[in-house]
Write a structure and sequence with these properties.
221 residues; alpha/beta; Rossmann fold; six-stranded mixed beta sheet; four-stranded antiparallel beta sheet; globular; binds adenosine-5'-triphosphate; binds magnesium ion
């Protein structure tokens, strides 16, 4: 199968009080199209940092990151943002919805910014699909945690990204909502043929992916 993402000898270091902290240490990873991968590992091992690097939200100290054979490490911030906006959907543990925008507006905004036609009706369709047809006009504060995460996922997949990055997407949810969210994510990737990289502490959820990767002290073990 075709390669979607390739990390080659990727390192990430932070400088704290003149000390070098090696957060990611010589990461090599190839992700194929349609592949689903779970990332597990202890707190502080570097999982979120890896997601940030892949999503272009953080810059590698050294190494190469190729997305669709394009070297992200050589691109300007603007170019990286454009690639991310169009091709990568990111879901976090905290939902980061725009607080004064309704559920519908949160999803429609992404489509509008990307010049999609009929952003409102497309956003409605997505929210409908996620069981939120009676919540269009609710603000995030008027939604439950599970509902907010469904809106966040609808927003992340509105552009039909080739890659979904999810960092503890069910971390703030009870088991019933976790199950619903994981079903939605896996159904989407199966239907749309996108790839999924998901960080999770939940082993049952991790086992739903085709591949499981463990990070120990910034290294893939
Ligand atoms: N901006 C930063 N500056 C300095 N150190 C950082 C920064 N961001 C993260 N770190 C450090 O990098 C290490 C890895 O952090 P990261 O958030 O990737 O861990 P994680 O595996 O996601 O942990 P958790 O399971 O708790 O979310 C930690 O030791 C953290 O303190
Ligand atoms: Mg983390």
């Amino acid at each position: 199968m075709t390669t979607l993402l390739k990390l080659q000898n990727v390192n990430l270091k932070y400088q704290n009080d003149k000390k070098n902290l090696i957060v990611l240490n010589n990461i090599n990873l190839t992700v194929k199209k349609k592949e689903t991968i779970s990332i597990v590992g202890e707190s502080g091992s570097g999982k979120t940092s890896l997601i940030m690097l892949i999503g272009g939200l953080e810059k590698a100290t050294s190494g190469k990151i190729y997305f669709n054979n394009k070297d992200l490490t050589n691109l300007s911030e603007d170019k990286i943002s454009e690639i991310r906006r169009k091709n990568i959907g990111i879901v976090f543990q905290s939902f980061y919805l725009i607080p004064n925008y309704s559920a519908l507006e949160n999803v429609a905004l992404t489509l509008e910014l990307n010049k999609f036609r009929n952003p409102n009706s497309q956003a409605k369709e997505l929210l409908h699909r996620f069981g939120l047809k009676n919540r269009f006009n609710n603000l995030p504060s008027q939604l439950s945690g599970g509902e907010q995460q469904r809106v966040a996922i609808a927003r992340a997949i509105a552009m039909k990204p080739e890659l979904i990055l999810a960092d503890e997407p069910t971390g703030n949810l009870d088991s019933e909502n976790s199950l619903m969210i994981s079903k939605i994510l896996f159904k989407y990737v199966a239907e749309e043929g996108s790839s999924l990289i998901m960080v999770t502490h939940d082993h049952k959820l991790a086992n739903k992916s085709k591949r499981k990767i463990k990070i120990i002290d910034g290294k893939i073990s």
